[in-house]
Amino acid sequence: SFTAVHALQILDSRGHPTVRVTLTAGDGVMVTASAPSGASTGAHEAMELRDGGAGYGGRGVESAVAGINSSIRELLLSRSWPNQRTLDAALCELDGTPEKSRLGANAIVAVSMAAARAFSNLSGDSLHTWIAQSLGTAERLPVPHFNVLNGGAHSANPLAFQEFMIAPIGASTLPEAIRWGSEIYHALGAELRRKGLSTGLGDEGGYAPEISKPEEALELITQAITDAGYSLGEGGVSIALDPAANYFYHDGSYELNGRSYTSRELSNYYDSLILNFPIRSLEDPLAEDDPRGWPELTAALGDRVQVVGDDLFVSNAGRVQIGIETAAANAVLIKPNQVGTVTETLDTLTVADQGGFTAMVSHRSGETEDTFVADLAVGSGCGQIKSGAPARGERVAKYNRLLEIADASPNLPYGLGTAGQKNGGP
Ligand code: PGA
Ligand code: ZN
């Protein structure tokens, strides 16, 4: 059982306040977790509690911190907790709102992640192994999807698409994948300098040059992959896009490349990009408010690329279930703070797996040095993680945690894996 609960306000990678909590349990266990924060959020995400007012532009989290240091502390110290599910259910009940707006999802997710660390410590397992046991999955080192070029809400450049990621799926080990990612990132920097383009960075550590067309970004990236000496596609390095289409969807149409697209036209545009570039994954290709567009796009492109719902599903099991039933996508992005507790996050992974969806575990654009998502990616066996560029402390913290896990567990497989392998099959 817990003996102390203490939260404080810290800064995230954008310099905005966020919540850090430390839990102490008997037997000398002391664990910490910090809440990340998105910039391009889905409308149905669990809600952060922000103070408003003048300080920090209204983004202070002293109220969320105070909730942890009062009613959540009282709850946690009031009894002993048999498992994560019971604790998370009690947190949700104490909050009492469907969107976790009273105590704040930022407060609840930090407590829930810290509790998972405490449960894993008490069980004597590493966090990733504890997660695998909770889910009944086989552990796997994921393919890192490095976001090397930033646009959209994560940068000031005129590029509409938010994320251009490189995925070293042809690497044979995780350390090799990290090396490929780093080399390509630096090759891209050199190429930008050669072309007189800016090497300033966006929120996730990727370059944010003053370009506006997705094709320009894709040309730069494929050139960097080749310059670094790697091949394009399956045996080498593939590309994943997160257009984050909410951001350029206005009044029922998509505003991009100086023109307006219907969802069908945008789907055809993606089709042309897939034909010309080694794209393996498309996240939020359409807006969350375009429910008819998603199944059409997935029917058209889903046999050639992974179609990932992020803002569409907000890591919510019920929303993913609807997505499965309507074939709106074929994959889900997993961000614990979108739904608010570790238990709900794990339940969403289970629903996705049972419905034949793949999953990619993800950081947020506003991050801390917390590495929970690295363990979540390994423990879930989902085979995919995105944590921004292979640069900047809050991004490399996750990749470095993966390197640490790989080093400590040299027999863990690396790569995308198959549906069967996730559940411990061959
Ligand atoms: P966010 O962006 O953390 O700003 O929401 C990440 C994403 O859209 O995947
Ligand atoms: Zn996204």
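^ zinc ion complex. The two ends are 39 Å apart (CA to CA). The CA atoms of residues 29 and 287 lie 44 Å apart.
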